[in-house]
Structure formats: structure tokens, C-alpha cells
Amino acid sequence: MRKVSITGGKGGTGKSTVAVNLAILLSRDRDVVLGDLDVEAPNDHILLGVELENESPVHVMMPFIDYERCTKCGACGRVCDTGAIMAPVGKPPFVFPRLCSGCRACFFACPEKAILEGRRILGSTYSTPVPHGGGFRLVTGMLREGEEHSSPVVLAARKRADEEARDLLLVDTAAGTGNNVSIAITGSDLILAVTEPTPLGAHDLSMILELTGEMGLETWVVLNKAGIGSEDLIRSIAEEHGSRIVERIPYSREVVNSYISSRPIALGDSRASAPYRRIAELLGGVV
Ligand code: SF4
Ligand code: SF4
What we know:
Layout: E1 2-8, H1 15-26, E2 32-36, H2 44-48, E3 56-65, H3 75-79, E4 85-86, E5 94-95, H4 105-109, E6 115-130, E7 136-143, H5 151-164, E8 168-175, H6 179-185, E9 190-195, H7 199-214, E10 219-226, H8 232-240, E11 245-250, H9 253-260, H10 274-286
Parallel strand pairs: 1-8, 1-9, 2-7, 2-8, 9-10, 10-11
Antiparallel strand pairs: 3-6, 4-5, 6-7
Helix pairs in contact: 1-10, 5-6, 7-8
One iron/sulfur cluster (SF4) binds near residues 70, 75 and 114.
């Protein structure tokens, strides 16, 4: 199984548009799974115009205090690095569920075995058949609204996508270079870094190339909204990091309309779909 991750800077750079269009094009010849691991704002299903199916909840451990056993020693509060347990010595501890990552440190630290392991739902994963192209599966991770700790949902969605992928796994990551992006791109054969020719795009691209360089992952740059600004800086940043711009996607009203209408551009054969076809061809030659 081969894995290509599509990542990018701040929201709106077009990485999800690239991901869904590549999934459609490549699924015509390949067995494709698309993993939407942007769990705080998954939108591939919206771009593809499909309803999410086959929900599976993602649970994490949730501590419950047995106040009859608790001696109010405060040890649980001292080991909790997210502030999810307030436990002043001499006072009964209090748990803030939304801050809890389910790491179990308090459970192991309690000398009285006064912490019981409950569980709660942090989010869900989904596996949805998509009829476009040759047909493929979309695996989506979605964090529950208001939750703080998204990494367990990214891990669960990555695991489900890994299990379902046989031939080619495309992964749409969160924006930026945080922990969730590192989790999502781990094990990739190739990264596509989508950026735009703006100072912010250049800054974000530099961070992404540093991260993928540290992880030893080959990275290609896809320049989206080409023509709206200077491309020299993007080109020099890419070259500085041993990368290159493999495709320029011009700004197009047609692509914006495809986004609004949930009808990906690759479903037609207009001029605006040509850059996506060229990227798919390039990918087909290496993965
Ligand atoms: S499970 Fe971890 S994060 Fe949650 S309360 Fe215990 S120590 Fe804190
Ligand atoms: S570590 Fe155990 S005994 Fe100590 S305050 Fe926490 S729950 Fe109570």
C-alpha cells in the first residue's frame, strides 16, 4: 500500500480541493481510500457531496473518583498536565472532563486506587462510499464540538484508513505543522504541500517543508491560486528545502463554484480541471 499526504498552511489554501479531486481521478485506475484527518474541520464529504456513513465512536478513558477511598492526597492533580483534575491537598479532587486527554496518568498515580476508569466519546470516525471516478472510500475523523484533545481522533481515523486501504491511501491533513499533522503524515511515501503565492503562504510552506524534512519525507509543492501574487519566494523556499513546484493551479471562478455546489472540478473535463489531471498523472508515475 502506498500513502500520499496532502497538507498545507492556514485554512483555504485548497488542500482539500486537491485531495478530493486527486481521489476522483486516481480511483479510475486504482483502489483508493481518501482519509480526511482534519478532524476539527473535516470537509471532504461536503466537497464530494456525500453524507457520512458507518459511524464508529472514538472513546477515551475518563477518570471517576471513588470519594470513599480518596484520602485527598493531591497526587492525581500533580501528575495531570492538562489541568483536568483540580486536587488541592486536603480537598476532594474535581475532574473537568473536556480538559481530560484520557492519558491515565492519574489512574496510575493514585496510591489508594480511588480512580476508576470510565470512558467517554471524544469524536467519531466514518467510512463512506463515494461513487465518483471509479468509486472509492472516504474515511473521516470528526472531533466532537467543544473538545480540546483531537489527537486520539486523528489516530483512530488514521488506523481505520490504514486498515481499509489496499492499494493507495490519500490523506488530507489538518492545516499547519502541529501534532495532528505529524500523526497524519507519518508513514507517507510522498507529501504534497499545497500553498498560495502570498507572504503567509510562503511562511507556512517554509514551516511545512522544515517538518517534512525533519521526518525525512519527500515533498512536492503545489502552487494554488497561481497568478494572484509573486511566485519567486515560493520557488526559492521550495528549492532551499530540496523541493520543487510540480504544478501551478491558476485561480479560477470555476473551482470556487465547484466548491459551493459540492461538485468537484474533476468530474468534468474543463480547462480548470487540467492541473489536477497533471498532478494525478505525475503521482501515477511514482506511487
Ligand atoms: S486521564 Fe490524564 S488528562 Fe485525564 S485527568 Fe487523568 S491525568 Fe489528567
Ligand atoms: S491521587 Fe487518589 S487518593 Fe490522592 S487525591 Fe487523587 S483520587 Fe484522592
